[in-house]
Design goal:
Elements (H helix, E strand, L loop, with lengths): L1 H16 L4 H9 L6 H10 L9 H6 L12 H20 L2 H24 L6 H34 L1 H7 L4 H26 L9 H25 L3 H20 L5 H7 L3 H13 L8 H25 L5
Helix pairs in contact: 5-9, 6-7, 6-9, 7-9, 7-10, 7-11, 7-13, 9-10, 10-13, 10-14, 11-13
Length: about 325
């Protein structure tokens, strides 16, 4: 019975780590056969000299160490990232409210564009076009980034799947990258869809600058969503924690065009940099990133990552 339990434990560890156990392979290669007098005589004649390895290339490819995370192959890490991303996609796709968010943003921008065109006889002023683009992109980045990432982690806490993942061979960095991968791709895709349907002239769009600003803003939103997920205990608590982030990073840039004070404050927010670029595009002007815009984008991304690391070192992904 004891040997049977040991064999079951070895098979479970091999299925989690997805690599062979080097100690068992070495013991199999070095153990002599019992019924062979020739092997016993050879080992006694050789004394302390080790026997040659029949297949030295296999011994060199075997990972060293009990856990083997440092020497794990790249394919195993990519497989774990894909597994975490698949779990996240299943968690997000089963939540109807989260999946309706991008659809609502796209439908709202397109519907308002049609209504404005009907009321103005097909001519939409640049102010309304810029307002639609600002509202769609900031709503997508803030609401979907904060809520999608935060509530997915909170749901895993409620279902106790997060603890199972963290006690397996999945590391914290692999879980972090796999958690923000699907939301980041969705945020980038919706940003481009809103840009195409908003009515902005695509000739004046600086595609490289738009991609850079949208990428950094989406990453910052996803990291802030991870912070919301760490601090939240359940999905309801995650929504409550995300509301202050929404009020600051979404409302201030959207209404910054109506108030001079809010417009100055939005210049120091990563979403304000995004709305500043869309305002230039709506006016038909070429957008050039200023040193302040670069400092705000990458500075707030760095600050959000540092805050996440501090919270993760204190409590991990689950705050007891």
């Amino acid at each position: 019975m004891k040997s049977q339990y040991q064999s079951q434990d070895q098979s479970l560890n091999q299925s989690l780590n997805q690599r062979p156990n080097p100690s068992s392979d070495l013991s199999k290669n070095q153990s002599p056969k019992r019924g062979s007098n020739q092997s016993l005589s050879r080992s006694s004649n050789q004394g302390l000299n080790p026997s040659p390895n029949p297949n030295p290339t296999q011994a060199q490819k075997q990972p060293v160490g009990r856990s083997g995370h440092k020497n794990a192959p790249m394919g195993s890490n990519l497989h774990k990232l894909a597994a975490v991303a698949q779990i996240k996609w299943l968690c997000i796709s089963r939540n109807t409210m989260i999946m309706l968010g991008p659809v609502i943003v796209i439908a709202m921008v397109y519907g308002c564009k049609i209504l404005y065109g009907i009321n103005s006889e097909g001519i939409i002023v640049p102010f309304l076009t810029g307002f639609l683009l600002n509202l769609g992109i900031t709503m997508n980045i803030c609401s979907e980034g904060f809520i999608m990432v935060g509530t997915s982690i909170a749901e895993e806490k409620e279902n106790h799947t997060l603890r199972v993942l963290m006690t397996s061979s999945v590391t914290g960095m692999q879980y972090f990258i796999g958690s923000i991968l699907i939301p980041f791709v969705m945020l980038m895709a919706v940003n481009y869809i809103v840009l195409f349907i908003s009515g902005i002239s695509l000739e004046v769009v600086p595609w490289l600058s738009f991609f850079l600003v949208s990428m950094v803003a989406s990453l910052t939103s996803c990291v802030l969503g991870m912070i919301v997920g760490i601090c939240a205990r359940n999905q309801m608590n995650a929504n409550l924690i995300a509301y202050p982030f929404l009020m600051v990073f979404m409302m201030v840039p959207v209404f910054g065009s109506m108030s001079e004070g809010l417009h100055r404050i939005s210049g120091f927010l990563f979403t304000g940099v995004m709305t500043g670029m869309t305002e230039c595009l709506a006016d038909g002007e070429r957008y050039v990133m200023s040193p302040l815009d670069i400092a705000v984008l990458f500075g707030e991304l760095l600050i959000s990552v540092l805050v996440f690391l501090v919270l993760y070192k204190r409590n991990g992904y689950e705050k007891d």
